[in-house]
Amino acid sequence: RKEVEQDPGPFNVPEGATVAFNCTYSNSASQSFFWYRQDCRKEPKLLMSVYSSGNEDGRFTAQLNRASQYISLLIRDSKLSDSATYLCVVKSGYNKLIFGAGTRLAVHP
Amino acid sequence: DTEVTQTPKHLVMGMTNKKSLKCEQHMGHRAMYWYKQKAKKPPELMFVYSYEKLSINESVPSRFSPECPNSSLLNLHLHALQPEDSALYLCASSLGQTSNYGYTFGSGTRLTVV
Questions:
Q1: Checking DSSP bridges between strand B109-113 and strand B10-13, what pairing results, if any?
Q2: Candidates B42, B44, B106; nearest CB to A43
Q3: Which of A31, A45, A96 minimises the CB distance to B56?
Q4: What DSSP designation does A81 have?
Q5: Total Cβ atoms within 10 A of residue B61
Q6: Residue A45 forms beta bridges with which residues?
Q7: pLDDT tens across A12-68, in order?
Q8: Contacts of residue B90 in chain A, CB cutoff 8 Å?
Q9: Rounded to 5 degrees, what angle do the CA atoms B75, B78, B79 make?
Q10: Are B43 and A31 a contacting pair at CB < 8 A?
């Protein structure tokens, strides 16, 4: 079983739609959780950290459920510029960042 | 300065060549990382340096040799690579290996082995 699992997509949504991505992780000792965004042929960029209390940054909301070992990302009012691959990332008990395979999002006019 | 700078951006090398990838950051981060990313795959960890000492080696073949000359610099020396080593090599840094902050990535070196 992979340490971090995501639905690979692609998610094809119209502008203005709300889209949700899910992720599960296998190591209960995992310490920190993140969503990264990666554009084609570019480096991953930190989108937001994820906390048990849930956190919001503009149109983006992230949630963590430690009991279920489940992480989510909600994007409201999708923009064309949101098209990218969204990587669920977990810091393992060995202080290593482990990446999920990524979920591809394509927002169309 | 909130950047991780990698050079060169592109590299083509033959299987008998020796080359080096360079990474630099001036954010005062004390942990630095090398990741390898193949097309349509997530980044995979290769090496971790913490306070200039090698902390993690993910069983990487010896044809890849990391070096951390000081707290701002990280090199990856390449020798006798194979075509399957062609990939995007990403350097990253963080405040410390145990910090709960995410990593900052450089824009990568796109390596082609011919």
A1: parallel
A2: B106
A3: A96
A4: G
A5: 11
A6: A37
A7: 999 999 999 999 999 988 889 999 999 998 999 999 999 888 899 999 999 999 999
A8: 43-44
A9: 150
A10: no
